[in-house]
Amino acid sequence: MTVNSTTSVNPAEERLTEIKDQGSSFPLWPTSNQQYQPVHVQSKSLCQEDKSEPRRDDSESHQGLADAARKVLQHIGEDPDREGLVKTPDRYAKALLFFTKGYSEDVNEVANDAVFEVDHHDLVLVKDIDIFSMCEHHMVPFMGKIHIGYIPNGRVLGLSKLARIAEVFARRLQVQERLTQQVADAIEQVLQPKGVAVVVECTHMCMVMRGVQKTGAMTITYSMTGVLQDDHKAREQFYTLLRLGQR
Question: InterPro entries annotated for this entry (predicted)?
Answer without folding.
Answer: GTP-CH-I_C/QueF (IPR043133), GTP-CH-I_N (IPR043134), GTP_CycHdrlase_I (IPR001474), GTP_CycHdrlase_I_CS (IPR018234), GTP_CycHdrlase_I_dom (IPR020602)
